[in-house]
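Why do we care about 3D structure at all? Because function follows from shape, and shape follows, mostly, from sequence. That is the central idea of this module. The next example makes it concrete: a single protein chain, its amino acid sequence, and then its structure expressed as tokens.
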Amino acid sequence: MHVSSGRWLYGLLLALTTAVLWGVLPILLKEVLQAMDPVTVTWYRLLVSGSILLGYLAASRRLPSLPLLGGKGCWLLLLAIAGLVGNYVFYLLGLQLLSPGTTQLVIQMAPVLFLISSIFVFRERFSFGQAVGLVILLLGFGLFFNQRLAELLSSLTTYTTGVLIVLLAAFIWTFYGLAQKQLLTVWDSVQVMMVIYLACALVITPWAQPLQIVSLSPLQGWLLLGCCLNTLVAYGAFAEALAHWEASRVSATLAITPLVTFASVALAASWWPEHVQPEQINALSYFGALLVVLGSALTALGPSLLASLRARRARLAGQL
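And the structure:
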């Protein structure tokens, strides 16, 4: 079992780096999607990230061995590939219909769905603290959509379609997450991501249109490169954060990602109003977003908080 190094401050800084990078990503993607379709954007992101990882693993002589997977491992790899492709493409399709902030908030359901799936697949425990966090998260979603709740529940508008597509992206991501967790018993995280990235790029190649890159403006071209590097750097910081800090605390820190997106949109809209539109939500929606973040953090920290509470009670009982 992996034990963190105890350098919690370094782990916190790395987790915050990941949260910031993931928080600004939908803003970059929104601009690129004006001149490039979602499949092609995904193809470039996967190909560039996978190629860089391939070069790194080849240079360090750590290329993965496919025979080690076996039959079950190959099926898990196929499931992970399908899950990641579906997640990337449907996320971008939803982003085309929604604002960056709304998209980033809705995709927060992905780790929650992964947690619920892990209860059934890996027989993991679901604590009372996690249940409280889930209730707070769902309440937060209700408040966030307060202006358009009737629209979401009664009609299939463009907004409703966008929300449903992002929820589908979150649901599909759970299959990727479950499969990747099992693949990590054979390969390390970098090897897994390299194979999955390049395999996903190969799968969607027939539908990608690489020549669309010539239609990008210089700004959009740089933003596309930023999107490609964002995934690579953010994931690297995330993996390194796990080496120095508990996974539950890293996950709780990453829960602030939607808040980073909202803050980034507000800042970008004031600096570049011709490229970024401000979020059209009220104060109650912002409060709902805060509750979603709080609920996500509690869901991640539930087991740790419960263990800490039990340890404190045991110490107090021992002093009596």
